[in-house]
Amino acid sequence: MSFIYHDLENKIKKLNKIGVALSSQTDLRILLEMILKEAREFTNSDAGSLYRKEGDKLIFEVAQNDTLDRRLSDKKREAFIPFPLPLTKTSIAGYVALTGITLNIPDVYKLKGEEYSFNCEYDVRNNYKTTSMLVIPMKDHEGEIIGVLQLINAIDENGNIILYSKELQELISSLASQAAVAIRNAKLIEDIKNLFESLVKYSATAIDARSPHTAGHSRRVSELSVRVAKAINEEVDGPLSDIKFSPVEIEELRIAGWLHDIGKIGVREWVLEKANKLNADRMEAIGNRFQLIGEKMKSESLKKKMEVLEKYHQSSAICHQISVIDEELNTAQKELDDEIEFLKRVNEPGFLKDEELERLKKIAGKKFLNSNGNEEPCLTEFEFVNLSVRKGNLTDEEYKIIQSHVVHTYNILKNIPFTKNLKNVPLIAATHHEMLNGAGYPHGLKDGQIPIQARIIGMVDVFDALTAADRPYKAAIPLDKALQILQFEAQDNRLDKRLVDLFIGKRLYEETPKQND
């Protein structure tokens, strides 16, 4: 009697340990495998299955079989893929899922007159013999049946198939209830993760969608950054071999890649979308202004001709003066036409030379009389400031506005209650524009002050910006030129040379998703 009591006590202790282990596992796929494995070991079952109830279907989630595992090699064994089954009382698992009744069957081939029946297809296909079976409903804390645990062929100490005992049935029912709660919790956590993932991707995609020219950028940066991190993990020697990213750190990197530009929500669209130094409407206004100047010149020329006709009486003198006036008009008109073409040219992003800046100043310094007879400059201060940008198409003020997006990124992300595993996402995302030599922004961080994950995103961000075919201010740069620019940036200690060398040496860019998605 004491032996039986001691054995029962040990089983209860083991049951408690299993319950603790199940409650600590949050990965649903691993949890389902663990539940069946622990239940089989607890009952010394040769095989088993686990079904999850979902709506009007049973999802056949897990199948385990020691006999077949010993008999078949890994290559010959079929990989199990979960699949749905109709939820009806005609199957054993379906009957238990619908009724909540535990079935302890001595021999499934001797069932007679039952509402349910045994499907022997699996046995025939695998040359296996199912005999005893214990099928338990998995009920959560609210009594709802969320699945079915099916144990097959209990084995005694001599290797014989036996009936599942009544005591074991009661204990395994307790385990099934613990498992149901663990599944419910894991499913809830999985749903929360999926919701979070959707919000992250939707938010990043919405930011990218503010401009048709950045569509897909955040996804590409995230995917390629993770690829770089995994390539670093494969390094066995060299300057990056001492860096290893855990799955948690790679997940942080992935999320930070998705959210690195989230702060652009605080940047005005006309700055994000700025293709040239001045927009088309402003350039049209300048064109109309210069056309008015041209009309004024023609009017002044006509007025001078009238004065010549009144002053001179000899035809030869008149012709000479008229010719001089026409030549002056043609010269002035040509100069005006050259100036408007020059303005159109310098309006495009690029590098403004010293001589071009001087010419721009001269044009801006010219005055003309408007239709009301008031004097105005040929270029407004706003137009001159924008057209005189020496590199690119953004003024200093606009560049600061663009730079502010990483500050907005940090301020947004720091207020999100990230889990402990993702606590570094705000810092990683907000430092991807910092450069090793301190020339980056917003804080001018250097070297070790910049997280390695942020350096990865920074490099990938530059590469994607260079090779993207859809930016408003430039055409896509050829791949070889883009890689050369990355190398130059590394030489100047702006980008991490170790990362650039790995990126180019391992040709990680070849798997980059298409840019036009």
Number of DSSP helical runs: 18
CATH class (first level) name of the largest domain: Alpha Beta
Q: Give a count of the beta strands, DSSP E runs of length 2 or more.
A: 11
What is the overall pLDDT average? Answer: 85
Distance between the termini: 73 Å
CATH structural architecture of the largest domain: 2-Layer Sandwich
Class based on secondary structure composition and strand pairing: alpha+beta
Query: Which radius of gyration do the C-alpha atoms yield?
Result: 38 Å
- Report the CATH superfamily of the largest domain: GAF domain
Task: Determine the CATH topology of the largest domain.
Answer: Beta-Lactamase
Main beta sheet, described? 7 strands, antiparallel
SSE ordering: HHEEHEHEHEEEHHHHHHEHEEHEHHHHH
Count of distinct structural domains = 3
Q: Estimate what percentage of residues fall within beta strands.
A: 5-15%
What proportion of the residues is helical, as a percent range? Answer: 40-55%
Which runs of at least 5 residues are low in confidence (pLDDT < 50)? 1-6, 513-517
Q: Tell me, what's the shape?
A: elongated
List the helices and strands and how they pair.
Layout: H1 2-24, H2 28-43, E1 45-54, E2 57-65, H3 66-71, E3 83-86, H4 92-99, E4 103-105, H5 121-126, E5 133-139, E6 145-155, E7 161-162, H6 166-209, H7 217-233, H8 247-259, H9 269-272, H10 280-311, H11 315-346, E8 350-351, H12 354-365, E9 367-369, E10 375-377, H13 381-387, E11 391-392, H14 396-413, H15 425-430, H16 452-467, H17 479-491, H18 497-505
Antiparallel strand pairs: 1-2, 1-6, 2-3, 4-5, 5-6, 6-7, 8-11, 9-10
Helix pairs in contact: 1-2, 1-6, 2-6, 7-8, 7-16, 10-11, 16-17, 17-18
